[in-house]
Amino acid sequence: MAIPGKTSRTVVAVGGNSLISSGASNGNLDTHELAREVCEEIASIAQYMGGVVITHGNGPQVGFELLRNFMASSVVPPDGMDLNVAATQGYIGYILQQVLGDVLEERNVDIPVTALVTQVLVAPDDPAFDNPTKPVGPFYSREEAEEITAKYGWIMKEDAGRGWRRVVPSPKPRRILELEAVRTLLNAGQIVICAGGGGVPVVREGYKVRGVAAVIDKDHVSALLATRLEAGTYVISTSVPQVYLNYGKPGQKPIEKTTLEEIERYISMGEFAEGSMLPKIRASVGFLKHGGGKVVITSPGHILDALEGKAGTTIVRGSP
């Protein structure tokens, strides 16, 4: 198999919310059926566009893990948050790896798929540790959130008008420790699943690394990964088909094609919510400013059309 060219590489970031049933915010985890749609699209990208690296979110899933830990703490000692991130990275990677492998097998396409548990270095003095902002887990009503805060001491914040969620520290990613392993697998013609949930956050202590209680933003790690791999395209697969202005308000308007300059203007106008679309937009800006070709934001089922400019939101450096 030929080694894909750098500019043909595509990084696809799959949102954790798009891998759970919309009617099961406090119940069902991701399933093979829910992963099937996005895996069909990723298989087509790998077949016809070149090298593919997949990242994924874990906000809902790591929240479930944390909740299990607290509910079972009288019976089983709770795991650290870094282990919760690693666990969700493992089982979501397993599901994507298996389903994508099934799709490729059905198409008689021989492209190996590897899921790689990934560590991401953060600074121990990152100010995010003093100001938790990253939403994890299911949505709750205000009354439920107040009860949870009183019972568990969790910090709960309202999330973009959709309900209340637990928030945890989200330090800035500094370095992807397994980057060269990802690059080697990609150059060997494999599809690589990595940096799940933003990667396991670690700090360096001399010659050792240690996990810390945080969740790194998946979109920022994905943009960093795409930049380091010199990918041409960064795809963000999320729970909405497009980016919107005035989201959830009267006069809501979809953004179809736009430029880096214009999207930065929208950020300055406060158009995007901190716990929802804003991290994705900021990650997109970072990728484009560091040489990326284009960013596509859409939901599963629309990715292929979005890559052709027929759906979703496309952001480019120059004229759209």
Summarize this entry quickly.
The chain has 320 residues and is an alpha/beta fold.
Q: Between the first and last Cα atoms, what is the distance in angstroms?
A: 34 Å
Got a strand count?
A: 17
The CATH superfamily is known as Acetylglutamate kinase-like
**Chain oligomer state:** single chain
Helix content bin: 25-40%
Order of strands, widest sheet? 3-9-2-1-12-16-17-15
How many helix segments?
9
Low-pLDDT residue intervals, each spanning 5 or more residues: 1-6, 24-30
Global shape: globular
How would you explain this protein's 3D organization?
The chain is of the alpha/beta class and 320 residues long. The protein has a single domain, classed as Carbamate kinase (3-Layer(aba) Sandwich). The chain has nine helices and 17 strands. The chain has helices at 32-49, 59-71, 81-106, 142-152, 179-187, 218-228, 260-268, 278-289, 303-307, and strands at 10-14, 52-56, 113-115, 119-121, 134-140, 156-158, 164-168, 175-176, 191-193, 200-205, 208-211, 233-237, 243-245, 253-255, 257-259, 294-298, 313-316. The strands form four sheets. Strands 3-9-2-1-12-16-17-15 form an eight-stranded mixed β-sheet, with helices on both faces. Helix 1 (32-49) links the parallel strand 1 (10-14) and strand 2. Helix 6 (218-228) runs parallel beside helix 8 (278-289). It is globular, with a radius of gyration of 19 Å. 43% of the residues are buried. The model is unreliable at 1-6 and 24-30 (pLDDT under 50).
